[in-house]
Every structure is written in structure tokens, then in C-alpha cells.
Design brief:
single chain; alpha+beta; globular
């Protein structure tokens, strides 16, 4: 083995070990979260993974021809019955990239029935920090969502512009204002969710999905205060 090869291995080995550590840490975190949810009444539902994948793709407007079903997967699905309705928790992963470079984007998700005045798609993205002064970063994110999902950025009401709401999207041929898509009481509740790690609320038809921030979804202890919040949102009609 020549010096160059040894040097490249020397540089690459720490990265490989770090990725292996991240993989097992993430796997352990998911297991601990699932264990906690089982302890409060959730039950495993692996046979419904494909159903949940289809629902999550539709809610997120990623069920069109630009996305392949093979890009997505659902893991660790669990379910609890609340009254006559079901609330699901799972990890929703999307693979992006081509044959030479691929990466996985994972979301921790709660999915539940949610009745609104319209079935039009809506997506609200939140940020734990005050978003004032982040316009360039937000602009790049807005462009990505618009191009990938075929959604339009909606006008944000003046009273919400300096808070935790990062961006709002709707389908081009759907309702045109945020308050037509989500009522003010729901938005107010959602904004309080940033303290529990909530990063996004997406709804379409009669279903909704809460996604957790990458800052909190690896921490099993984050579920304890988050679960009552999810129940509160799911109970809003």
C-alpha cells in the first residue's frame, strides 16, 4: 500500500467511524422514542407502513410524477386510538440524489385526522429562532419547496411576519390566503409548538402532519412534553 493510499485512508477512517457512530446513535434514539410511545399506549403497526408512506407523500405534495415511490420509506410506525380516530408516529425518510451521490432526509412525524374548511394543501414551516433577518436563507428554502412540490409561497399576514413562522405554502389552484387554509386559533397553537421542537405543519384533504426539528428529534426525552401538544393540535376542529 503506497503512502497516498495510506494517507487517504487516514483521512477517511475518522469520517467512516463518525458515520457509523451517528447511525447507531440514531437507531438507538428511534428505539427509545418508540419504547416511550409504547409505554403511553401506542402499538406497533408495521403492516401499515405503505399506507402511511402514501398518506405522508400526499400531504407533503410529493405524490406527483417528479417523485418516485422508491425514494421514500417509513420506519418504526406506531399508532394510538383517540376516540374514533388514530394518531400515528413514524420516521419518514426521503432519498435524494443520483447514482453517484445520494443522501437521506429523515423526518420524525405525527400524522392524524384534521378537519378544516377546505381540503386544499397547506404547509407552514417554523423556526425556533425569531426569523427576522433570515431572509436570504428563507429565500433559498422557499425556492426549493416551490420547485420540488409545485407549491406557491403565500402572503404572510403582517401580524405573523416577525415571529417563528418561516414560510407558508399552498397549491397554485387552491385557496390563496393563509387564513382560508388554517384558522387563526390553530396557527396560534402551532407557533407555540416551536418550544417542543415542532418544525412544520402540513395538511391536505382531511389529514395533517407535524414534523419535528432536527434539533430535537434525536432526543427521546423531547417526546414527553411534545405528546400533549400533539394531542391538543389533533383535537382542534
Amino acid at each position: 500500500m503506497d503512502f497516498e493510499t495510506k494517507f487517504l485512508l487516514f483521512l477517511g477512517l475518522p469520517s467512516i467511524l463518525f458515520l457509523i457512530w451517528i447511525f447507531f446513535k440514531d437507531k438507538k434514539s428511534r428505539r427509545l422514542k418508540t419504547d416511550y410511545l409504547r409505554s403511553i399506549g401506542f402499538q406497533d403497526c408495521p403492516t401499515r407502513a405503505n399506507e402511511l408512506k402514501a398518506k405522508a407523500r400526499r400531504i407533503a405534495c410529493m405524490d406527483n410524477a417528479d417523485f418516485s415511490e422508491k425514494q421514500f420509506s417509513v420506519s418504526n410506525p406506531v399508532c394510538i386510538t383517540s376516540g374514533e380516530e388514530e394518531i400515528f408516529h413514524f420516521f419518514f425518510t426521503q432519498i435524494i440524489g443520483g447514482s453517484r451521490y445520494r443522501t437521506a432526509i429523515a423526518q420524525e412525524v405525527f400524522l392524524f385526522p384534521f378537519q378544516r374548511n377546505t381540503g386544499d394543501a397547506v404547509a407552514l414551516f417554523l423556526h425556533p429562532m425569531d426569523v427576522k433577518g433570515m431572509k436570504r436563507k428563507i429565500g433559498a428554502y422557499v425556492t426549493g419547496v416551490r420547485e420540488a412540490r409545485g407549491m406557491d409561497e403565500l402572503q404572510m399576514p403582517r401580524e405573523l411576519q416577525d415571529g417563528h413562522l418561516m414560510a407558508v405554502f399552498g397549491k397554485p389552484n387552491g385557496s390563496k390566503t393563509l387564513y382560508e387554509l388554517v384558522d387563526q386559533a390553530t396557527i396560534s397553537t402551532l407557533l407555540s409548538g416551536v418550544q417542543y421542537g415542532v418544525a412544520a405543519f402540513q395538511a391536505r384533504d382531511n389529514l395533517a402532519m407535524l414534523s419535528m426539528s432536527c434539533l430535537s428529534w434525536g432526543k427521546p426525552e423531547a417526546l414527553k412534553p411534545l405528546w400533549p401538544f400533539v394531542q391538543g393540535v389533533a383535537g382542534m376542529r
